[in-house]
Amino acid sequence: MKDLSKHPFSWQAIGRIIVAGLLVFLIWKSLGVFVVILISLVISAASYPIAKYLNTKLRIPMILSILMVIILLLIPLVLLVAVTALTFTNQFPQVLTVLAPLFTKLHINPDIVQSTTIIAYLKENMGTFLASSKEVLLAVLSVLTTIFLTFYFMFDANRLFALFVELFPRKERQNLKSVLEEVAKVTGQYIRGNLLISLICIAIIYGGLLLLHIPFALPLAIFTGIMDLLPVIGPILGAVPALVLGFAISPLTGVLVLVLYIAYKEVEDVIIGPAIYNKALNLSAALVFLSVVIGAGVFGIVGAFLALPVAASIPVMIRYREHFMSRHVKDDAKMILKEGADPK
Length: 344
Prior knowledge:
Blueprint: H1 11-29, H2 31-56, H3 62-105, H4 111-114, H5 118-124, H6 126-131, H7 133-155, H8 157-165, H9 170-211, H10 217-228, H11 234-249, H12 251-277, H13 285-312, H14 314-341
């Protein structure tokens, strides 16, 4: 029978368990805030090298460099939203005309098909849009919070980095600093590369849809580019609206749209992606898919977008853990040898 006196009751251990449980509970309850912080960190990791270049090479003050980078990120986003909204409004009747026969065959008659313009539909359903104003306001606040945090993370990057590293033992700080720098480098390279690939995707798909005379070509191309940011399942989701419109026009047009998307995906996987990423993401297909599934299951569509840059840091952390364990094994072995050599 074990002697329980050798394992005394520890209030300190109980306190640590309670504190850990409270932290897990708070994190679970504040997942939305955690996602905003994670998005801001990822954007900061991708944007900080550009701001640093403007500051060191062009002698622009750091605060102005950061503001310039944020504005450069926002301008394309605002332009894409404005152009998409304008194109959507102008070409909406044409899209309805194309889809009407398809809805008739499927015995679908949604209210929006009965409206000749998007403006008329919005007027008829204004109550529904006003009821969702709370969600829209929360989304706007999340975007503003993300912008503010991104600015803060970049402007105070060195101080925040130093504060975080100082939480660890002194002998581990230099190794941890190197690991965090590598994680930030891999994450930033992935985000910048992914955005560049999406812009290329928008341009190529837009040109292909124009050649095939597909209405709504620009919004469809933008949607495809946005979905292309999502690993694994993004390209499939991005192709669905264009395929629906293509097959609604004619079977031949639908097949040509399918060929366009398959051909672009092959070019992206074989030529564009490897050239831009330059082996920055050395991940297996299974790890990529698992990361997307877990990210989407925990944080929804945003988690799926963030899954790959987070997964890219896993090999770096594994290498750090292996080095950490090997260092401590060597230290323990030296200590044992030293204790054995000391005379009693």
